[in-house]
Amino acid sequence: MNGRVMGRVAALVIAAPLALGLATAPAASAAAVTTLYYSSSGAPDYLAQIDQGAANWNAAVTDVKLVKRNTSATIVFHEIHSGGSYTNTNGHGRGQIYLDTSQVAEGFDPTRIAAHELGHNLGLPDHYSGPCTELMSGHGPGTACKNAKPSAAEAAKVQSLWVNGLVAQAAAENRAVAY
């Protein structure tokens, strides 16, 4: 084959996979999305509220996605009846969340509690002195606060922690965080 024919063959070898969607140029690839699985089966009285809390996070961030799964979940909800809602987590997408039914009976919003505790599993700390517009202000604003959506700043922080997968954070040891 002459050089002209070889050039055409090489062009076809490169162009054909791209045209068929078999390969993509590096610039066309999207940022990695980390999927975290949660189970709400241990909190049967709050299934819809937990799902809404996860949906609120999914609407606010793109680098991490919360998906419901009853088996092999890394974030697991449980109902308890005293002691306050809290999560045991390392902030790296793994944790046991305890939703206190007595707090709900006092008037705290269960969707806000669920979304707040998920925020800990996504790496956010409490900020009790914050306003109701901050999800991580938790119980600080009182029972009148029904906001269950993260603020733009909270969403941006989660985005920065999960960009292209979870980036290195503080020590990976478990920590208990109260609502």
Automatic annotation (TrEMBL):
<keyword id="KW-0106">Calcium</keyword>
<dbReference type="InterPro" id="IPR024079">
    <property type="entry name" value="MetalloPept_cat_dom_sf"/>
</dbReference>
<keyword id="KW-0482">Metalloprotease</keyword>
<feature type="binding site">
    <location>
        <position position="120"/>
    </location>
    <ligand>
        <name>Zn(2+)</name>
    </ligand>
</feature>
<dbReference type="Pfam" id="PF02031">
    <property type="entry name" value="Peptidase_M7"/>
</dbReference>
<keyword id="KW-0479">Metal-binding</keyword>
<dbReference type="InterPro" id="IPR000013">
    <property type="entry name" value="Peptidase_M7"/>
</dbReference>
<keyword id="KW-0862">Zinc</keyword>
<protein>
    <recommendedName>
        <fullName>Extracellular small neutral protease</fullName>
        <ecNumber>3.4.24.77</ecNumber>
    </recommendedName>
</protein>
<feature type="binding site">
    <location>
        <position position="126"/>
    </location>
    <ligand>
        <name>Zn(2+)</name>
    </ligand>
</feature>
<dbReference type="GO" id="GO:0004222">
    <property type="term" value="F:metalloendopeptidase activity"/>
</dbReference>
<feature type="binding site">
    <location>
        <position position="111"/>
    </location>
    <ligand>
        <name>Ca(2+)</name>
    </ligand>
</feature>
<feature type="signal peptide">
    <location>
        <begin position="1"/>
        <end position="30"/>
    </location>
</feature>
<keyword id="KW-0378">Hydrolase</keyword>
<keyword id="KW-0732">Signal</keyword>
<feature type="binding site">
    <location>
        <position position="116"/>
    </location>
    <ligand>
        <name>Zn(2+)</name>
    </ligand>
</feature>
<feature type="active site">
    <location>
        <position position="117"/>
    </location>
</feature>
<dbReference type="GO" id="GO:0006508">
    <property type="term" value="P:proteolysis"/>
</dbReference>
<comment type="similarity">
    <text>Belongs to the peptidase M7 family.</text>
</comment>
<keyword id="KW-0645">Protease</keyword>
<dbReference type="GO" id="GO:0008270">
    <property type="term" value="F:zinc ion binding"/>
</dbReference>
<dbReference type="GO" id="GO:0005576">
    <property type="term" value="C:extracellular region"/>
</dbReference>
<feature type="binding site">
    <location>
        <position position="109"/>
    </location>
    <ligand>
        <name>Ca(2+)</name>
    </ligand>
</feature>
<feature type="disulfide bond">
    <location>
        <begin position="132"/>
        <end position="145"/>
    </location>
</feature>
